[in-house]
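Q: Hi! New to this. If I give you a protein sequence and the SMILES for nicotinamide-adenine-dinucleotide, can you show me the bound structure?
A: Yes, paste them in.
Q: Okay, here:
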Amino acid sequence: MADGTRFDGRAAIVTGAASGIGRATAMRLAADGAKVACLDMADAVEETVALITEAGGTAVAAKVDVRSGDSVRAAVDAAESAHGPTAILCNVAGVLRFAHTHEMEVAEWDLLLDVNLKGPFLMCRAVIPSMLAEGGGVITNVASSAGMFGQAFMVHYCASKGGVVLLTKSLAWEYLKRNIRVNAISPGGVETAMTGSVSFPEGIDFGLIAKTMAVDNKMMKPTEPAALIAYLSSDEAAAINGAVIPIDHAITA
Ligand SMILES: NC(=O)c1ccc[n+]([C@@H]2O[C@H](COP(=O)([O-])OP(=O)(O)OC[C@H]3O[C@@H](n4cnc5c(N)ncnc54)[C@H](O)[C@@H]3O)[C@@H](O)[C@H]2O)c1
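A: Thanks. Here is the predicted structure of the protein with nicotinamide-adenine-dinucleotide bound:
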């Protein structure tokens, strides 16, 4: 249930905010009282801001390509000049592809590693100085159940999300004494543009990816991982640090 006083005007940045989990997270943080900077490379990020504003929340949009340090710096500067130093960062932007590894273009490997793993690193690098200056902050990264076990036909996605898991744990240790908490969530299937538009290469054995599907093919709404991200971003989760929390209908149980 949204609580308009939970974040009490704290400044939050959400990447991937044009769609799916990122949009739901931006909307939930705003409904819980944060001032939200919605970052994405897609124009639809403006729609997220409109949805938040219409609901009485505070939000700005900034275009970003999370693969680029310069673009990230400019977007974080825009967010902080609108709302002040960042207290909450949610790294949600991501891309998913399936491929046979022996046929994979290097460009496709680079795309997934750059968006899914380098992106969170660049965002953390840009935002942590403000958090240190303000005495703390909280970062939540979106990993995946595909970062918790090996999976056929998505070696680049699994490697990137496994990287997010250890990026998260390493940052939690590094900033433990400086009051920056860093956690990740690890979702199973979520109904978003990403899962709605997935395409598979010819000749894959679907039996080999069956373990990524929840029993009865259960999927969740983007509001469900968004609620978990909002909880982790809140003071109620003060003792949760360096955690990677599954939200996956027991896929990884
Ligand atoms: N949907 C699922 O089942 C699922 C499961 C586990 C993890 N995830 C992860 O959740 C996150 C959100 O996924 P989603 O399902 O909401 O997908 P989505 O496709 O709905 O949203 C992803 C957003 O990321 C943005 N984006 C992509 N590349 C970008 C870049 N270079 N710079 C800035 N923005 C960029 C897109 O424009 C898009 O708005 C991703 O990290 C994804 O890997 C999704």
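A: The two ends are 27 Å apart (CA to CA). Let me know if you'd like me to explain how to read the tokens.
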